[in-house]
């Protein structure tokens, strides 16, 4: 098995992790300073959000030079130190690569917009408009965020395409010079020792070469995993055949350096699988399964999730289990602040087959912030606040689960109970306000509490390292007819070893849960959130309790 098939990813949102120089903004030396914490936590691969030169209108996802480091975050030397220190600890590091678009402040785009015959013109996606004087967008394609994704440029009286925000102009990946330059840029980072890339909105890379309208759909609210945007399907702007071919090509590059690629792509199960190769594991190494964010928090909901993941991503493919990121509502909000449920979810995430991806702060149960839309720093919100009345924007924000602005899942990491939760020095002003609960939800308090969520993560991650079935094992769901509604159970086996995972997704105490399945008998309790009350034949689980057992014949 390859290391990336079972690695544990930890996402660091650079801006919010740790500020080393007192400007209120997290930075690269700040990550290096916290590597001991991450190593002790037991995570294996760091995903660091973009730190390249950028005007930071989308906080780094608008790159103006892929080969240099933004002075806001540090220097190239700082990056080299980070890479070295990560590797010294036996860990890995992947970069967040925004291949789909650059900032409109990138020198390439500045050139491109200058004239229709500029040598860089074809590096971006330009089209003449429709109707009289071309003042209507070329077609009906919508951006991922709001409104048409086409933007009129008076300088040359044409429209450029931006799949995300208006200042993030899409590169034209059909241009061979673009491909060559981007490949060379990726190679130079791999040469620096990077272990792979997270690929930002990879499914948007190509657009329909015939510029046909997207087909109509009756839905108002976008459902990206079903290929639906507001009143249209996204068939002409996502998942084009060439995108899958590019995935294969980039895989070849990453493989030659022993690295991996994890794609941010939105689609149903067959589409996600296609990104990773349909008949052989030949496309992106991994893709995030955002399905886990929408699964009902019930035994049935998570069993269904697992069944689908096993069906669509059987070995040698690996599911990636994700419950939060810098664009989504913090999971603690969905779980209504319940630490018990967060522990149960962590037990699932770290014991199911595949790659867990932990978002910074998830391990201490950081909640969703309370920054109102009107005070947000996120450019995505301004697309709405500039156009609509405040009450409507707030309503849309609530209806979409906080999708209008993303500041609330990006608040500073909570390290201790000093000023600004220890994120930056006392006299600095953090770029986003620290959350109100920071005086008691922080790593320092949780490290010294053996029952804390943080220590539960640490125990689970240690167990994962100790018992190969938890990383390399196959997965078999076990059904307990009397408790099917409440208990999710599965066995992970590798060679001679097997472990049983039992998760109580209910607020009830459940007794008489069998410990014998076929000829396997699990008697040794390895880990439990509660007591894991045990007699030789069965176990009793407390509300929301998670237990992990080892098979009898393997007792040490
Ligand atoms: C991805 C990133 C998001 C960013 C967008 C545009 O969805 O996760 O933060 O704003 O792409 O690059």
What can be said about the biggest beta sheet?
Answer: 8 strands, parallel, barrel
The CATH top-level class label of the largest domain: Alpha Beta
Low-confidence segments, given as residue ranges, are: none
* CATH topology heading of the largest domain: TIM Barrel
Question: How many β strands by DSSP?
Answer: 24
Helix content range: 25-40%
Instruction: Enumerate how many helices there are, as a single number.
Output: 17
Total separate domains: 3
Task: Give the CATH superfamily of the largest domain.
Answer: Glycosidases
Q: First CA to last CA: what distance?
A: 25 Å
- Strand line-up of the largest beta sheet: 1-2-5-9-12-13-14-15
What is the averaged pLDDT score? 95
Q: Per CATH, which architecture of the largest domain? A: Alpha-Beta Barrel
Describe the SSE topology:
Blueprint: E1 9-12, H1 14-17, H2 28-33, H3 35-41, E2 45-48, E3 52-53, E4 65-69, H4 76-88, E5 92-97, H5 107-112, E6 126-127, E7 150-153, E8 158-161, H6 176-191, E9 196-199, E10 228-229, E11 232-233, H7 241-256, E12 260-263, H8 269-275, E13 286-289, H9 291-294, H10 299-312, E14 320-322, H11 331-334, H12 339-351, E15 355-359, H13 379-385, H14 390-399, H15 443-447, H16 453-466, H17 469-472, E16 474-478, E17 487-494, E18 497-504, E19 510-514, E20 516-517, E21 520-528, E22 533-534, E23 538-541, E24 546-551
Parallel strand pairs: 1-2, 1-15, 2-5, 5-9, 9-12, 12-13, 13-14, 14-15
Antiparallel strand pairs: 3-4, 6-8, 7-8, 10-11, 16-17, 17-18, 18-24, 19-23, 20-21, 21-24, 22-23
The protein binds alpha-D-glucopyranose.
Alpha-D-glucopyranose is lined by residues 58, 61, 98, 164, 168, 200-201, 264, 326-327.
């Amino acid at each position: 098995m390859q290391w990336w098939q079972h690695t544990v990813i930890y996402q660091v949102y650079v801006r919010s992790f740790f500020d080393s120089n007192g400007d209120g903004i997290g930075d690269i030396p700040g990550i290096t300073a916290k590597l001991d914490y991450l190593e002790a936590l037991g995570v294996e691969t760091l995903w660091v959000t973009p730190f390249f030169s950028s005007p930071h209108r989308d906080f780094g996802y608008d790159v103006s030079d892929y080969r240099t480091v933004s002075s806001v975050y540090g220097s190239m030397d700082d990056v080299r130190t980070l890479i070295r220190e990560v590797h010294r600890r036996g860990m890995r590091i992947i970069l967040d690569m925004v291949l789909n678009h650059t900032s409109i402040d990138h020198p390439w785009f500045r050139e491109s917009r200058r004239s229709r015959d500029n040598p860089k013109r074809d590096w971006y996606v330009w089209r003449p408009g429709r109707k009289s004087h071309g003042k209507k967008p070329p077609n009906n394609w919508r951006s991922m965020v709001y409104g048409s994704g086409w933007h009129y440029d008076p300088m040359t009286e044409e429209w450029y395409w931006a799949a995300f925000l208006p200042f993030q102009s899409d590169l034209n990946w059909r241009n061979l010079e673009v491909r060559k330059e981007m490949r060379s840029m990726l190679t130079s980072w791999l040469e620096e020792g990077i272990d792979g890339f997270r690929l930002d909105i990879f499914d948007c890379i190509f657009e329909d070469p015939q510029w046909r309208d997207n087909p109509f759909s009756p839905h108002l609210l976008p459902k990206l995993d079903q290929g639906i945007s507001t009143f249209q399907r996204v068939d002409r702007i996502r998942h084009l055949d060439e995108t899958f071919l590019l995935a294969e090509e980039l895989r070849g590059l990453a493989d030659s350096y022993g690295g991996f690629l994890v794609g941010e792509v939105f689609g149903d199960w067959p589409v996600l699988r296609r990104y990773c190769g349909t008949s052989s594991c030949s496309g992106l190494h991994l893709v995030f399964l955002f399905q886990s964010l929408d699964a009902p928090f019930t035994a049935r909901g998570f069993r269904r999730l697992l069944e689908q993941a096993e069906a669509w991503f059987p070995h040698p493919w690996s599911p990636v289990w994700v419950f939060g990121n810098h664009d989504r509502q913090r999971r603690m909000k969905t779980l209504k602040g319940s630490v018990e449920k967060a522990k149960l979810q962590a037990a699932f995430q770290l014991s199911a087959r595949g790659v867990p991806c932990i978002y910074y702060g998830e391990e201490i149960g950081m909640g969703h912030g309370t920054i109102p839309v009107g005070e947000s720093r996120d450019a995505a919100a301004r697309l709405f606040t500039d156009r609509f009345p405040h009450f409507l924007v707030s309503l849309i924000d609530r209806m979409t689960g906080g999708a209008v602005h993303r500041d609330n899942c990006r608040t500073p990491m909570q390290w201790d109970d000093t000023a600004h939760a220890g994120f930056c020095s006392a006299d600095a002003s953090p770029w986003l306000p620290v959350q109100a609960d920071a005086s008691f939800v922080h790593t320092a308090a949780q490290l010294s509490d053996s029952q804390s969520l943080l220590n539960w993560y640490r125990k689970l991650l240690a167990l994962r390292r100790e018992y190969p079935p938890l990383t390399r094992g196959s997965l078999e769901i076990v059904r307990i007819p009397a408790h099917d509604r409440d208990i999710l159970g599965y066995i992970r086996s590798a060679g001679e070893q097997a472990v049983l995972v039992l998760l109580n997704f209910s607020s009830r105490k459940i007794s008489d849960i069998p410990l014998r399945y076929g000829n396997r008998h699990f008697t040794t309790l390895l880990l439990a959130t509660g007591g894991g009350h045990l007699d030789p034949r069965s176990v009793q689980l407390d509300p929301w309790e998670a237990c992990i057992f080892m098979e009898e014949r393997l007792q040490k």
